[in-house]
UniProtKB/TrEMBL annotation:
Keyword Protease attributed: yes
Tree of life domain: Bacteria
Domain Peptidase M24 C-terminal: 532-591
Record-given protein name: Aminopeptidase P family protein
Enzyme Commission no: 3.4.11.-
Entries under CDD domains matching the protein: APP (cd01085)
TM ranges: none
GO MF annotation, one: aminopeptidase activity
Organism: Sphingobacterium corticis
Species lineage: Bacteria, Pseudomonadati, Bacteroidota, Sphingobacteriia, Sphingobacteriales
UniProt keyword Secreted, yes or no: no
Keywords carried by this UniProt record: Aminopeptidase, Hydrolase, Metal-binding, Protease
Domain Peptidase M24: 311-520
Gene3D superfamilies the UniProt entry points to: Creatinase/methionine aminopeptidase superfamily (3.90.230.10), Creatinase/prolidase N-terminal domain (3.40.350.10)
Length: 591
């Protein structure tokens, strides 16, 4: 079916079930950012392939609510589908709920599939619409009956990884979670989010592209831990190891029945990371405590083993990136390179490194105007041919058994304008200011965001995405609970967190600039004024100086840039051959 036909079929089903508005979030039963094919409902329904958005369908309107990262992409992909782009004013806000409240009157019905809707979103919908007489039905799946050849649940193999890699065994991780459960005075805890499950059990899988996770639920009780998973994914040896860690394995599909049979006084769930249907399965006599998963905080603070392996991983990635940019420079004049072909080549350089498993997200290789799309992914239709002219933005990362990487660089392919240099230099100033930040313990991510944006704001420029995010250890490239963005998220930056710093500037239809490194937050000093922290830069890859307008930089920025590039050369040179060393030496010369 074409998207117009799918929309008509959904509307017919809505009429049959007396539904006035139907909501389709970008999600799955685990409230994941990146989805197995079975749950890519927005892409199937509307053609939009971005990782963040919500469809709202009524009989006279169908819209995609998404944020600034996807405005251009959304407008392009929704053309002639029957869906319209609705631009969010604030990233992550459910602004469509207010729209529904204004559009519909008392007695109307708004529905959604509770398997694809977080408890937090469901409660937002209920709290804003039910008081004005709009009925809510959170148990409606209108897509399954009309989704021909819908993909099945993934069946890829899962596997356990050794505590020598993770720095902590499963028994001690579950014990740590139970201690937090006791503080919350809860006797049971449901973990739905896949990266929390993976961290807790030291398990990895291949159920979601670029994210080494496996579909499952975990229920931790005072004396019992139960994993709900397709057991065929695990070897007999791994099942035995889980049993030795006092983990019982049950069928994936039995989780709702098991939850319905729980007999405890208080239960802990994370409303952002638990779907509404799981919440609905909890017996009504259980008092529900809604908090962030304890494992989310525990996972965000990397232990010494994870930190040391992450440093080693950055060297592997740095070697791959050095070889890639050298290859790119030597071949761009051939006229044969395209955005898709260079993404493939970059992946091949990474794949040659020890421990490489996969890319950590779809590579963003945006040439000229495509670089202005923050989450651009080249397709056979859009695949631009590179020339020795203009700017190329490459945002990429790798999943290694020893860690996860995420890096963005912009390079000149030739004939750069003064405006491009100015924009590049201003973004670089922001990235350096964020990297150089010294801040008291307890600082929140929005404060780091403001420090990073300050030199950009001073030029009356800005960017529409966050400044940074947490990064997992051989896990999801986007990891909570902290984030560096303007939102007033009340979570402190803690010692041991790995985060990105990635300011940008985008000129629609012309080019985009983003420069990104990963940093480790660390304790710097303790004195009579308190504890102070700073960042250790982890990413090891030269920053192009051909694009720098030195007159726009202060001495501290010039010193940081020169020291960083010199450090990059010293770190990578022993791992490169003589020709590669010579090339990188030229790229890291002081300005």
């Amino acid at each position: 079916m074409e998207h117009i036909q799918k929309l008509a079929a959904i509307r017919a089903a809505m009429t049959a079930q007396h539904i006035d508005a139907y909501i389709i979030p970008s999600s799955d039963p685990h409230i994941s950012e990146y989805l197995p094919d079975r749950f890519k409902a927005i892409a199937w329904t509307s053609g939009f392939t971005g990782s963040a958005g919500t469809l709202v369908i009524t009989q006279d309107f169908a819209g995609l609510w998404t944020d600034a990262r996807y405005f251009v992409q959304g407008k392009d992909q929704l053309e002639n589908t029957g869906f319209e782009l609705v631009k969010l004013k604030s990233q992550g806000k459910a602004e469509f709920v207010e729209w529904l409240g204004e559009k519909f009157e008392k007695g109307s019905t708004v529905a959604f599939d509770g398997n694809l809707t977080s408890l937090l979103l469901a409660k937002t919908i209920q709290s804003e619409l039910e008081p004005i007489g709009i009925q809510i039905n959170g148990s409606v799946d209108l897509l399954d009956a009309i989704w021909e050849n819908r993909p099945a649940l993934p069946t890829a193999t899962a596997y356990l990884i050794h505590p020598d890699t993770t720095g902590q065994d499963t028994i001690s991780k579950i014990a740590a979670i139970r201690r937090d459960m006791q503080k919350a005075r809860t006797q049971a805890h449901i973990i739905s989010s896949l990266d929390d499950l993976a961290w807790t059990l030291n398990i990895r899988g291949n159920d979601v592209p670029c994210n080494p996770v496996v579909l499952g639920f975990l229920v931790i009780e005072q004396e019992k831990t139960t994993l709900f998973i397709d057991s065929k994914k695990l070897s007999a040896a791994d099942q035995s190891e889980l049993t030795n860690a006092h983990v019982t394995i049950e069928a994936y599909e039995n989780v709702h029945q098991y939850i319905a049979g729980l007999r405890v006084e208080q239960l802990l769930i994370d409303p952002k990371r638990t779907c509404y249907s799981v919440y609905e399965s909890i017996p009504s006599d259980i008092n529900i405590i809604e908090q962030t998963n304890p494992s989310t905080f525990l996972k965000a603070v990397k232990n010494p083993t994870e930190v040391n392996l992450s440093r080693e991983t950055m060297l592997k990635d740095g070697v791959a990136l050095t070889r890639f940019f050298k290859w790119l420079e030597e071949n761009v004049q051939s006229g044969e390179l395209t955005e898709m072909s260079i993404a493939d080549q970059l992946q091949s350089f990474r794949a040659a490194q020890p421990g490489f498993v996969d890319i950590s997200f779809d590579t963003i290789a945006g040439y000229k105007e495509h670089g202005a799309l923050p989450h651009y992914k080249a397709t056979t239709k859009s695949d631009a041919k590179l020339e020795a002219d203009g700017l190329l933005l490459v945002d990429s990362g790798g999943q290694y058994t020893s860690g996860t990487t995420d890096i963005t660089r912009v390079v000149s392919l030739g004939n750069i304008t003064a405006e491009e240099k100015e924009d590049y230099t201003i973004v670089l100033k922001g990235m350096i200011d964020g990297s150089l930040a010294i801040f008291p313990h307890g600082t929140r991510g929005y404060q780091i965001d403001a420090i990073t944006r300050k030199p950009i704001w001073e030029t009356l420029r800005n960017y529409g995405h966050g400044t940074g995010h947490g990064v997992g250890f051989f896990l999801n490239v986007h990891e909570g609970p902290h984030t560096f963005n303007p939102s007033n998220v009340d979570i402190a930056v803690e010692e041991g967190m790995i985060s990105s710093i990635e300011p940008g500037l985008y000129r629609e239809g012309a080019y985009g600039i983003r420069i990104e490194n990963l940093v480790l937050s660390r304790m710097l000093s303790h004195n009579e004024f308190g504890d102070f922290m700073d960042f250790e830069t982890l990413t090891v890859c030269y920053i192009d100086t051909d694009l720098v307008n030195k007159s726009l930089l202060d001495a501290k920025h010039i010193d940081w840039l020169n020291n960083y590039n010199a450090w990059t050369y010293n770190q990578l040179a022993p791992l490169l051959d003589a020709e590669e060393q010579e090339w990188l030496k030229g790229k890291t010369q002081a300005i």
